[in-house]
C-alpha cells in the first residue's frame, strides 16, 4: 500500500495540466539547487584552508565544534521559510479508504526526500575526511558526521510539526525571533557563547558513539511528535476551514476613514494575513529590519568624512522591503477576483489607492521600527527618513508601473519560497529603479556639496512625489483601465 500511494502521487504530478507549464521552471530550480549544493561542497572542501588562514594557531576541530550550533540556527531559519508541508497532498488522500496512519507515514517519508537533508552531510564530510580522520581515525570522523546529520534530520521532523502547529499564528514568528536573538545575539552582545555550551557534545562524538545514539533518539522523538500531530489533526475541516475562520475579522479600523479605498485596503490586509505566501512577505519584512546590523556597525563601511553610499540602499531596503516584495505582484494578488473590482463603479481606482494606503502604512511602521538605529549615529535616522520619503513618494509609483506590465495570475494558497507564479520579466526589471533610483538623486548633491545635502535632495524629491500623489497615481490607474480587458482575460487563464 505504501508504494501504491507513492506511485499515485508520482502519476498525479505527471498528469497535472500544469506539468508542462511548470516543467521549465522546475528544470531551472533543479539547476539552481545543484549549483547551490555544489557551493556547499566547495565550502566544505575549503573549510580546512580557510581555518588555516584565519585561525592558524587554534584547534580547528574545537573551533568547528563551537560553531556548529550556528549552522543549526541558520538551518532552523531556512527550513522555516523553505521547507514545504505535506498538507496539500493530505487533503487529496483523506477521502480514500486507507488508514490515516499509512497516509501520514507515506507523506512524512516522502517529505524526507529533500535537498535540505543533505546540506549538513555535504558541508561537514570533506572536513571530516581531511582533518578529523587524521586525528581520530575513520570511526571518529564517521561518528562526528553521523551526529550532525541525525541532528539535522531531527530538525526536519521538528520543523514539520512546528510549522503546521504555529505558522498561522504570531507564536511561530516570535519563536523564530527568539531562536535568532538568543543564539547569535547573545554571542554578539557577549552575554554567553552558545557554541561553547554545545561544543562538548560534538567533541564527545569524536571518541564515543553515545552522541550518535542521542541524536538518533532525538530524531525518533521528533518524528513521533510530528506523526502524532498529523494523525490527530488529519481532518478535512481542520485543513480547509480553520485558517479562514482564524483571520476572518482581522481588520484595521484606521482604513475605514478613507472610504471605498480604505475598505479595499482592509480587504487587502485580510488577504495578506489569510494566505501563507503574503504572510511570508510580511514576516520577511520584520526580519529585514535587522538588515542594518550587517552594515551600520561594520568598520568596512565607515568613512572619515561622511558615510558610505551603501547606506542609502540599506535605508531603501529597510523602510520599503514590503512595498518592494508585495508591490512587484501588484495585481497578481487579485487575479482570482479582478472582475469584481472591474465591475464596481470606481473599483479599480479604489483598489489602487487602497494598495497605496497599505504600502504607506506598513512602510511608516518599518520606518518607526528602525528608529533605534539612531543608537549607531543620528545620521542613520536621517538616512531612513530620506529613503522612506523617497520610497512612498517616488519609488512606489515606479514599482507599480513596472508591475503592471503583463501581470500574471497566481495561486495565493501556495508558499512563497521557490514559487514563481505571477513572476515575469517586469519583476526583475524592478530591481533596477530600486537600486539606481535613489542614487540618481543622492549622488550628484553628495559629490557637489556633502552627504547631508544628498539626503536632503532625496527627502525633498520624496515630499514632492507625495504632494503629486494624485497625478502620479492617476498614471497607473489609467494604465490599468486602458488594459483592463487584456488583464482580466489573462487572469482567467488556468494556472
TrEMBL record:
Keyword Disulfide bond: no
Coiled coil: none
Name recorded for this polypeptide: DUF5687 family protein
Segments passing through the bilayer: 23-50, 62-82, 103-129, 141-162, 169-189, 201-226, 280-297, 309-333, 354-375, 381-405, 417-440, 452-469
Lineage: superkingdom: Bacteria
InterPro entries, A to Z: DUF5687
Keywords, ordered alphabetically: Membrane, Transmembrane, Transmembrane helix
Keyword NADP: no
Amino acid at each position: 500500500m505504501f508504494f501504491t500511494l507513492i506511485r499515485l502521487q508520482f502519476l498525479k504530478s505527471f498528469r497535472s495540466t500544469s506539468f508542462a507549464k511548470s516543467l521549465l521552471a522546475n528544470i531551472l530550480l533543479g539547476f539552481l539547487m545543484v549549483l547551490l549544493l555544489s557551493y556547499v561542497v566547495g565550502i566544505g572542501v575549503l573549510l580546512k584552508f580557510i581555518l588555516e588562514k584565519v585561525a592558524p594557531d587554534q584547534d580547528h576541530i574545537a573551533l568547528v565544534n563551537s560553531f556548529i550550533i550556528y549552522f543549526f540556527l541558520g538551518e532552523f531559519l531556512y527550513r522555516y521559510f523553505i521547507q514545504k508541508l505535506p498538507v496539500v497532498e493530505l487533503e487529496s488522500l483523506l477521502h480514500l479508504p486507507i488508514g490515516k496512519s499509512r497516509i501520514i507515514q507515506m507523506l512524512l517519508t516522502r517529505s524526507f526526500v529533500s535537498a535540505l537533508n543533505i546540506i549538513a552531510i555535504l558541508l561537514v564530510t570533506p572536513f571530516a575526511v581531511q582533518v578529523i580522520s587524521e586525528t581520530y581515525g575513520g570511526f571518529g570522523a564517521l561518528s562526528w558526521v553521523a551526529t550532525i546529520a541525525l541532528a539535522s534530520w531531527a530538525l526536519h521532523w521538528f520543523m514539520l510539526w512546528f510549522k503546521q502547529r504555529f505558522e498561522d499564528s504570531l507564536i511561530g514568528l516570535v519563536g523564530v525571533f527568539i531562536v535568532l536573538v538568543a543564539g547569535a545575539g547573545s554571542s554578539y552582545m557577549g552575554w554567553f557563547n552558545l557554541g561553547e555550551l554545545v561544543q562538548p557534545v560534538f567533541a564527545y562524538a569524536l571518541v564515543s558513539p553515545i552522541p550518535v545514539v542521542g541524536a538518533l533518539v532525538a530524531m525518533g522523538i521528533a518524528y513521533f511528535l510530528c506523526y502524532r500531530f498529523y494523525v490527530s489533526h488529519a481532518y478535512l475541516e481542520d485543513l480547509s476551514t480553520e485558517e479562514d475562520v482564524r483571520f476572518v475579522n482581522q481588520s484595521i479600523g484606521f482604513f475605514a476613514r478613507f472610504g471605498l479605498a480604505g475598505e479595499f485596503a482592509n480587504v487587502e490586509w485580510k488577504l495578506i494575513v489569510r494566505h501563507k505566501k503574503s504572510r511570508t512577505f510580511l514576516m520577511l519584512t520584520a526580519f529585514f529590519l535587522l538588515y542594518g546590523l550587517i552594515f551600520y556597525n561594520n568598520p568596512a563601511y565607515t568613512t572619515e568624512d561622511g558615510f558610505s553610499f551603501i547606506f542609502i540602499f540599506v535605508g531603501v531596503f529597510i523602510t520599503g522591503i514590503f512595498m518592494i516584495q508585495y508591490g512587484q505582484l501588484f495585481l497578481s494578488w487579485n487575479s482570482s477576483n479582478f472582475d469584481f473590482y472591474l465591475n464596481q463603479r470606481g473599483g479599480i481606482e479604489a483598489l489602487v489607492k487602497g494598495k497605496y494606503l497599505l504600502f504607506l502604512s506598513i512602510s511608516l511602521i518599518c520606518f518607526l521600527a528602525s528608529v533605534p538605529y539612531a543608537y549607531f549615529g543620528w545620521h542613520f535616522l536621517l538616512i531612513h527618513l530620506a529613503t522612506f520619503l523617497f520610497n512612498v513618494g517616488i519609488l512606489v509609483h515606479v514599482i507599480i508601473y513596472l508591475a503592471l506590465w503583463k501581470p500574471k495570475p497566481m495561486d495565493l494558497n501556495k508558499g512563497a519560497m521557490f514559487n514563481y507564479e505571477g513572476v515575469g520579466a517586469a519583476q526583475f526589471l524592478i530591481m533596477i529603479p530600486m537600486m539606481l533610483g535613489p542614487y540618481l538623486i543622492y549622488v550628484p548633491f553628495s559629490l557637489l556639496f556633502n552627504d547631508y545635502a544628498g539626503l536632503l535632495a532625496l527627502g525633498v524629491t520624496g515630499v514632492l512625489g507625495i504632494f503629486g500623489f494624485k497625478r502620479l497615481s492617476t498614471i497607473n490607474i489609467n494604465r490599468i483601465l486602458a488594459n483592463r480587458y487584456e488583464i482580466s482575460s489573462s487572469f482567467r487563464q488556468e494556472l
